[in-house]
Predict the 3D structure of the following.
Amino acid sequence: MRRLKLLISSGILCLLLMSCSFKPIKQIDACTELGRPVYSGEKFAFNPHVCPKKLYEAYGPEEWETFFKLCDALRAGEDTFECPSREVYDWCFSGGPLDEFFPVARYSLESDCENGYADGIGYIKYAIPKDEFLRKQKEFEKMVTDILNENVSKDYTDFEKCVALYEYMINNYVYDYRESANNTFEKMANLPRGTYGTYRTFKDKKGMCGDLSNVYNYLLLQCGVDAVQYIGGPVEKKHAWSYVTIDGAGYFIDPTWGLPDKSPNDLTYFMITAVDRESDFGDTMEPVEFGYDHRNIDVDFSADDNRYASLHEGDFVSLDREKKTLYYKVGNEKREYHYSS
């Protein structure tokens, strides 16, 4: 069941911000070309400007370029950012963009519905001391780049990145049954800020399906693979998973149902088609409204390439990148899957 996304409450705290003690995060030349990772030599560097191409195209450059300006302002410890309209300001702070694509800020800011925007300027209202926010952001950026550089390298293909980070997820994260039990608006409204969501899942290595999908997607986006969350299922039992695009083809990946306590075979829900996904949810697959919709959007989530079908009854063993071979087991039988890219 998917965690309910809460809108950032407004007008709860009025904070005195320290103006002299904080140090802004050193700015980097962030990527402005979607899908292009940032490197420091042979290593991955943190890219503050990530979003799925499908959502960039669906919402448009005005929203996303403004959101990136907000991200840059936050990394610099600033209190304002350029913003073209009240509508775009509300979109940036509506919950989804921050939680999925700048996670530390999601529960570190307050949205000011009355005075947050005026005359082309968006105002940032921190819910925690600025020093604390910048420290958390710096630690988060190191955490993300450490994960990437320990599990993938810049010469990996997109498929190899998907495999390596999928195995990283299912071997290091667990499903949070306690959060699942609190998955009602009333219960979550009473939980302390920051005890759920993408940032908390990165830190604690546990979360619900939406959190786990967001972490996986974020890591893929950081290393140049287009990935976005998708939600489907009946109203009373929604489920979230990931949708990736590789070589122009779309596939579903479920980092939640790939966990050891969710599936007997870890590759069952890796690179599957829409038909495979619908076998679990019938005809109730509908795109999530992304938690920050101010317009109806039409995004293509087709997935009909079944080239990876033979993997779905097996468990991952190893990857030989030189031979372009993925080794996996079906029962006690070791098999090979040969890929081209």
Summary: Residues 153-338 form a domain with the C8orf32 fold fold (CATH 3.10.620). Residues 1-22, 27-32 have pLDDT under 50 and may be disordered.
